[in-house]
């Protein structure tokens, strides 16, 4: 990647001011910024011709682009990256935004999923973008496992975690299951639980099923293996991603080209697998990160930006992330503190819930 800071350092004060004002004007209105507009706002009195020359130099450096025949310019992806890295002024979080996010905590529903859903909805509403909340993986030890028959071809596996959380998953058992085989399967698993997390239990189960194959009733073994398949369900990571406010992206775009890009983004959000993997990149480091356009594989076709921040538990371990997707014309200075505050709030709530 081009060293944007080096580019910025090489620019003189006038070039830097022209560049900054073009980007800020574009982020505010979404329209190309012309030289005549800048002559009214520059700190020093300069002619429109002088500003046009500076713009041409910035275009030659790959920082600005001319989208139409008009003399107006817009920042390129490289230009936006340089602005975000070197010139962005991050504001203080506005009280109104803080209050709207805090208001989600007033509900009596203390369930983690419902709480994260409310926070995602509030984040989307405040930023007028699409919000993403990557829920934490459940790593609490398991206390108890139970199988419940719902119908001849449907059964429920109930996992009770040491922190009081209960998780139910429906699956299709092998034909001919009986209450006896279900009890045997549950007893087999509960003998192995012994404070293990779900991921630890999966590893032990595979070894023990092989080692004690003769001891287990055939039906009980198929029940255990069916339960294992449910827990290894590839769709499980997708359920960790809560997406809210996709309609906001449509409302912000009127041009057909923009709508096509947003439809592509919607397809990405529906698949979810790539986006979960991408959000987990936020686990590489603390703080808010900004990804613009094709800087990542997910949004390369959608002309979108992602502002994302991880959140941590009481042990300062990163366990999830919150983010906002919008057009590359995001108000980054306002969005960054909102995402940062929301991530810290989620981390605190999860820590407090762990103490309860």
Automatic annotation (TrEMBL):
Annotated Gene3D superfamilies: 3.30.450.40, Heat-inducible transcription repressor hrca homolog, domain 3 (3.30.390.60), Winged helix-like DNA-binding domain superfamily/Winged helix DNA-binding domain (1.10.10.10)
SUPFAM superfamilies on file: GAF domain-like, Winged helix' DNA-binding domain
GO biological process annotation, one example: negative regulation of DNA-templated transcription
GO molecular function: DNA binding
Residues annotated as domain Heat-inducible transcription repressor HrcA C-terminal: 115-336
Keywords: Repressor, Stress response, Transcription, Transcription regulation
Function: Negative regulator of class I heat shock genes (grpE-dnaK-dnaJ and groELS operons). Prevents heat-shock induction of these operons.
Homology family: Belongs to the HrcA family.
Protein name per its UniProtKB record: Heat-inducible transcription repressor HrcA
